[in-house]
């Protein structure tokens, strides 16, 4: 689903002494079928922006269009019920929202709530659980008997079982160990690749993760949009990254250091181990050819 | 005497399963020890045993010369061995930064004048000058963790235990806290025990303990541990990038020194490669 944000501002607790402006006159377009990321420091407004994309919050002024839905300050919450099915959100620590007696029931809750029959809901729930790496023998367990990583997977299954077209991910791997992080990110990526129209918007502090998966990056700062750029262009441009105080992803940074030390230009557009290895081998072998 | 002595420590939350099994190690005065392991490996449980938040099921933990089982000395032990937790929001209690830093001192019965001096000094050390009257909950994650550290350092501890204190922070906050750890350990000689799954952070430590399924799988320098493929695979630890890439290059038949750890070392080796 395409997301279009037009002149959107958002103020928390408007007309109270606690009034805080989280977004200032933001306009941007996130095309359908693309993996997007929103980056920025704590308090930059990125999470607030994302909460507009499934109607969890409404803009204080301006308009947000998500697929065929339009969200303005006047939009009624009940008109957004259907949007929530198409735009699934995985928050930070989604496991804190588990509540049912069994994992299966927990994952079935959303589909049932959106009009699926019990049999249909069970089918999509089981599929979603298997996809997130939760084997059948765990489906009848209580969510509270699970490890932290399994609870996270169950919560993600709950979102995928809604069969969304747009997936909104707000720091989905916070607090997981590196292996868990990698597995969860790969799972989202596989989901994304399955169908042309599927769209992801990821919020993450981890520039390695963003560079690895996202194609398009939006930079937010103090409630304003600073830049929308292709990931491959942004993450290989040291001065641009410096300007927005973003870390260069580790593979590109290593190649950059090597380029500076050796004086030989290198292709910095490498955000995985395999891509970096390929660049390093080429560097060494070309050196050979010169000699 | 070593500030941390762990002997035959076992621990369980329930009757069935031991979360920690037969753990033995010592930490020397002024040492920086990283405890690494995947989620569920027992590393946070171990951290909570070190300052008596959890009691051994069997075995002993002696921190700063005090057995954690001794109720008489437990408060004294916790003053000597302070702990910073993962969630910055759950450990700040007072309405202002200065009050928060003073909180522990007040509890410890430090006279008012000395308290004021110590608060000022701690705030300065943690580079929080100018934020004294701010509300802690309005600070950034890195600042919050530094307030927590200031509250601990004001008590002049011998040991500081950080339980994944950087894992919820953005990269800037992480660097801020790591820099403070460096200062406290390298310049002031405070013993640091840092629980982490960030291998980059662990690679700075003097020693690394690797936990897996409640047992101590390895206890060595980070450099040595990053060489032990079996340990890393079993403990599900990710190698720091320079270590991983030099290994991949060696597998491609590129001859490189065995003990490359840092980005700089790898870049140098590649530039000199023939």
TrEMBL record, chain A:
<keyword id="KW-0813">Transport</keyword>
<keyword id="KW-0067">ATP-binding</keyword>
<dbReference type="GO" id="GO:0043190">
    <property type="term" value="C:ATP-binding cassette (ABC) transporter complex"/>
</dbReference>
<protein>
    <recommendedName>
        <fullName>Energy-coupling factor transporter ATP-binding protein EcfA2</fullName>
        <ecNumber>7.-.-.-</ecNumber>
    </recommendedName>
</protein>
<dbReference type="InterPro" id="IPR027417">
    <property type="entry name" value="P-loop_NTPase"/>
</dbReference>
<dbReference type="InterPro" id="IPR003439">
    <property type="entry name" value="ABC_transporter-like_ATP-bd"/>
</dbReference>
<dbReference type="InterPro" id="IPR015856">
    <property type="entry name" value="ABC_transpr_CbiO/EcfA_su"/>
</dbReference>
<dbReference type="GO" id="GO:0015087">
    <property type="term" value="F:cobalt ion transmembrane transporter activity"/>
</dbReference>
<feature type="domain" description="ABC transporter">
    <location>
        <begin position="3"/>
        <end position="247"/>
    </location>
</feature>
<keyword id="KW-0472">Membrane</keyword>
<dbReference type="InterPro" id="IPR050095">
    <property type="entry name" value="ECF_ABC_transporter_ATP-bd"/>
</dbReference>
<keyword id="KW-1003">Cell membrane</keyword>
<comment type="subunit">
    <text>Forms a stable energy-coupling factor (ECF) transporter complex composed of 2 membrane-embedded substrate-binding proteins (S component), 2 ATP-binding proteins (A component) and 2 transmembrane proteins (T component).</text>
</comment>
<dbReference type="InterPro" id="IPR030946">
    <property type="entry name" value="EcfA2"/>
</dbReference>
<keyword id="KW-0547">Nucleotide-binding</keyword>
<dbReference type="GO" id="GO:0005524">
    <property type="term" value="F:ATP binding"/>
</dbReference>
<comment type="function">
    <text>ATP-binding (A) component of a common energy-coupling factor (ECF) ABC-transporter complex.</text>
</comment>
<keyword id="KW-1278">Translocase</keyword>
<dbReference type="InterPro" id="IPR003593">
    <property type="entry name" value="AAA+_ATPase"/>
</dbReference>
<comment type="similarity">
    <text>Belongs to the ABC transporter superfamily. Energy-coupling factor EcfA family.</text>
</comment>
<dbReference type="GO" id="GO:0016887">
    <property type="term" value="F:ATP hydrolysis activity"/>
</dbReference>
<dbReference type="Pfam" id="PF00005">
    <property type="entry name" value="ABC_tran"/>
</dbReference>
UniProtKB/TrEMBL annotation, chain B:
<keyword id="KW-0067">ATP-binding</keyword>
<dbReference type="InterPro" id="IPR015856">
    <property type="entry name" value="ABC_transpr_CbiO/EcfA_su"/>
</dbReference>
<dbReference type="InterPro" id="IPR030947">
    <property type="entry name" value="EcfA_1"/>
</dbReference>
<dbReference type="GO" id="GO:0043190">
    <property type="term" value="C:ATP-binding cassette (ABC) transporter complex"/>
</dbReference>
<dbReference type="InterPro" id="IPR050095">
    <property type="entry name" value="ECF_ABC_transporter_ATP-bd"/>
</dbReference>
<protein>
    <submittedName>
        <fullName>Energy-coupling factor transport system ATP-binding protein</fullName>
    </submittedName>
</protein>
<dbReference type="InterPro" id="IPR017871">
    <property type="entry name" value="ABC_transporter-like_CS"/>
</dbReference>
<dbReference type="GO" id="GO:0042626">
    <property type="term" value="F:ATPase-coupled transmembrane transporter activity"/>
</dbReference>
<dbReference type="InterPro" id="IPR003593">
    <property type="entry name" value="AAA+_ATPase"/>
</dbReference>
<comment type="similarity">
    <text>Belongs to the ABC transporter superfamily.</text>
</comment>
<keyword id="KW-1003">Cell membrane</keyword>
<keyword id="KW-0547">Nucleotide-binding</keyword>
<keyword id="KW-1278">Translocase</keyword>
<dbReference type="GO" id="GO:0016887">
    <property type="term" value="F:ATP hydrolysis activity"/>
</dbReference>
<feature type="domain" description="ABC transporter">
    <location>
        <begin position="4"/>
        <end position="238"/>
    </location>
</feature>
<keyword id="KW-0472">Membrane</keyword>
<dbReference type="InterPro" id="IPR003439">
    <property type="entry name" value="ABC_transporter-like_ATP-bd"/>
</dbReference>
<dbReference type="InterPro" id="IPR027417">
    <property type="entry name" value="P-loop_NTPase"/>
</dbReference>
<dbReference type="GO" id="GO:0015087">
    <property type="term" value="F:cobalt ion transmembrane transporter activity"/>
</dbReference>
<dbReference type="Pfam" id="PF00005">
    <property type="entry name" value="ABC_tran"/>
</dbReference>
<dbReference type="GO" id="GO:0005524">
    <property type="term" value="F:ATP binding"/>
</dbReference>
<keyword id="KW-0813">Transport</keyword>
């Amino acid at each position: 689903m395409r997301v279009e944000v037009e002149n959107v501002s958002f103020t928390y607790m408007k007309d109270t002494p606690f009034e805080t402006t989280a977004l200032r006159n933001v306009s941007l377009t996130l095309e359908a079928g693309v993996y997007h990321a929103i980056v920025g420091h704590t308090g930059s407004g990125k999470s607030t922006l994302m909460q507009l994309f499934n109607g969890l919050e409404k803009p204080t002024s301006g308009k947000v269009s998500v697929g065929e839905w339009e969200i303005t300050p006047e939009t009624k919450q009940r008109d957004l019920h259907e949007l929530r099915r198409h735009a699934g959100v995985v928050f930070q620590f989604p496991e804190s929202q588990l509540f049912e007696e069994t994992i299966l029931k927990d994952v079935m809750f959303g589909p049932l709530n959106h009009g699926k029959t019990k049999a249909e809901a069970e089918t999509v729930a089981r599929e979603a659980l298997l996809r997130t790496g939760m084997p059948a023998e765990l489906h009848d367990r209580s969510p509270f008997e699970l490890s932290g990583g399994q609870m996270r997977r169950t919560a993600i299954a709950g979102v995928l079982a809604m069969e969304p077209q747009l997936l909104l991910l707000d720091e989905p791997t916070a607090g997981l160990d590196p292996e868990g992080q990698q597995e969860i990110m790969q799972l989202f990526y596989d989901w994304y690749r399955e169908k042309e129209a599927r769209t992801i918007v990821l919020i993450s502090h981890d520039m390695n993760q963003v560079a690895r998966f996202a194609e398009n990056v939006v930079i937010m700062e103090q409630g304003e949009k600073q830049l929308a750029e292709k990931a491959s262009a942004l993450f290989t441009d040291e001065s641009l990254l410096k300007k927005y105080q973003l870390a260069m992803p580790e593979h590109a940074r290593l190649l950059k250091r090597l380029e500076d030390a050796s004086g030989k230009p290198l292709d910095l557009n490498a955000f995985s181990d395999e891509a970096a290895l390929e660049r390093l081998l080429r560097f060494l072998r070309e050196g050979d050819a010169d000699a | 005497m070593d500030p941390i002595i762990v002997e035959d420590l076992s621990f369980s939350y329930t009757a069935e399963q031991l979360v920690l099994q037969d753990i033995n190690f010592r930490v020397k005065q002024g040492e920086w020890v990283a405890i690494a392991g995947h989620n569920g490996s027992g590393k946070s449980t171990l951290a909570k045993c070190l300052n008596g938040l959890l009691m051994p099921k069997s075995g002993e933990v002696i921190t700063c010369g005090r057995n954690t089982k001794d109720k008489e000395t437990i408060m004294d032990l916790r003053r000597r061995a302070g702990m910073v937790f993962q969630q910055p929001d759950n450990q700040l209690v007072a309405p202002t930064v200065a009050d928060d830093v003073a909180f522990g001192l007040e509890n410890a019965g430090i006279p008012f004048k000395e308290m004021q001096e110590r608060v000022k000094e701690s705030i300065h050390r943690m580079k929080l000058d100018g934020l004294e009257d701010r509300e802690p909950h309005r600070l950034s994650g890195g600042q919050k963790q530094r307030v927590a550290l200031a509250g601990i350092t004001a008590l002049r501890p011998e040991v500081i235990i950080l339980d994944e204190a950087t894992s919820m922070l953005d990269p800037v906050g992480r660097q801020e806290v790591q820099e403070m750890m460096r200062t406290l350990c390298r310049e002031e000689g405070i013993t640091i025990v840092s629980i982490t799954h960030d291998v980059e952070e662990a690679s700075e430590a003097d020693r690394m303990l690797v936990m897996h399924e409640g047992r101590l799988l390895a206890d060595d320098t980070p450099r040595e541990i990053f060489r032990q493929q079996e340990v890393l695979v079993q403990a599900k630890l990710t190698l720091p990038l320079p270590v991983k890439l030099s290994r991949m290059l060696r597998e491609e038949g590129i001859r490189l020194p065995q003990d490359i750890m840092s980005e700089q070392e790898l870049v140098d080796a590649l530039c000199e490669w023939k």
